[in-house]
């Protein structure tokens, strides 16, 4: 299994993918921070640090994050079709299930870098704005950052399947944009459906709206939903690629 990951690590254009992630992070952070500072004077002092997190992460998680994940998955798997790797895999008896698992792991590592930078932006903004904060809030949002990486797995796997099925990068990103829009609709309807909607999982993980820790029930639902989508679309992706061999 380690040899598969090493191969993925070496052949993947990590700098290019992270550059895309940084562009999305910069754009969403600009929108969130602009809203935060515009309304800064009307915020309640002991809630400012939480409001900052909500503004910074909501636009990141619900508006642009799904499209970014679609781009990540496309940039990682589309070159396999261009290189005709699937034909070579058949000749060399390489395991497609292991290949897909390691692509997902690599994707999550790259997502972890971007999400780590998001948390760093939050910390730097707290310091620059001289906003008071509680250590408990920092721990809460650090945990939320980690969970957002978990919440990315379902979207990544969905788009690995879409790209494997269609070989169409633009269609995959378009579906992600539609998913983000549907997530907004679910929020306006009350947010209950978001718990089970794959494109809302990063936002739920980041606690962008509730700004408090998940209850045990919420955490169980979150984990099960992401396991479900990740496994189902992992199986579909493997089946699709095996048929294409």
Keywords:
transmembrane, ABC transporter permease, transmembrane helix, 245 residues, mainly alpha, membrane
Question: What does this 3D model show about the protein?
Answer:
- The protein is mostly helical and 245 residues long.
- The chain has one domain (2-244).
- It has nine helices and no strands.
- α3 packs antiparallel against α5 (96-128) and α6 packs parallel to α9.
| Whole-number total of structural domains | 1
What is the residue-mean pLDDT, rounded to a whole number? 88
Shape field: elongated
Stretches where pLDDT falls below 50 for ≥5 residues? none
The run of helices and strands is: HHHHHHHHH
Sheet-strand content, in percent, reads: under 5%
Distance separating the two termini: 21 Å
Number of H- or I-type helical stretches: 9
The main pleated sheet reads as: none
The gyration radius over C-alpha positions equals 19 Å
Q: Which structural class best describes the helix and strand composition?
A: mainly alpha
- The residue fraction in helices comes out at over 70%
Number of DSSP-assigned strands: 0
Keywords: Membrane, Transmembrane, Transmembrane helix
Protein name: ABC transporter permease
Pfam family, one: ABC2_membrane_4
């Amino acid at each position: 299994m380690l040899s598969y990951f090493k191969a993925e690590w070496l052949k993947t254009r990590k700098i290019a993918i992270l550059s895309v992630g940084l562009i999305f992070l910069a754009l969403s952070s600009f929108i969130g921070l602009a809203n935060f500072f515009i309304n800064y004077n009307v915020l309640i002092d002991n809630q400012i640090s939480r409001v900052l997190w909500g503004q910074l992460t909501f636009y990141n998680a619900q508006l642009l994050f799904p499209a970014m994940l679609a781009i990540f998955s496309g940039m990682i798997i589309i070159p396999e079709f261009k290189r005709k790797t699937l034909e070579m895999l058949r000749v060399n008896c390489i395991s497609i299930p292991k290949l897909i698992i390691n692509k997902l792991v690599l994707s999550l590592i790259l997502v972890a870098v971007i999400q780590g930078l998001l948390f760093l932006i939050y910390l730097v903004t707290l310091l620059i704005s001289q906003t008071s904060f509680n250590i408990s809030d920092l721990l809460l949002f650090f945990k939320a950052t980690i969970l957002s990486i978990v919440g990315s797995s379902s979207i990544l796997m969905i788009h690995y399947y879409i790209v494997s099925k269609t070989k169409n990068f633009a269609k995959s990103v378009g579906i992600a944009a539609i998913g983000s829009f549907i997530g907004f609709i679910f929020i306006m309807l009350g947010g209950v459906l978001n718990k089970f909607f794959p494109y809302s999982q990063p936002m739920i993980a980041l606690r962008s709206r509730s700004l408090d820790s998940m209850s045990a029930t919420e955490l169980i639902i979150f984990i099960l939903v992401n396991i479900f989508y990740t496994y189902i679309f992992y199986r579909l992706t493997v089946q699709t690629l095996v048929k294409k061999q």
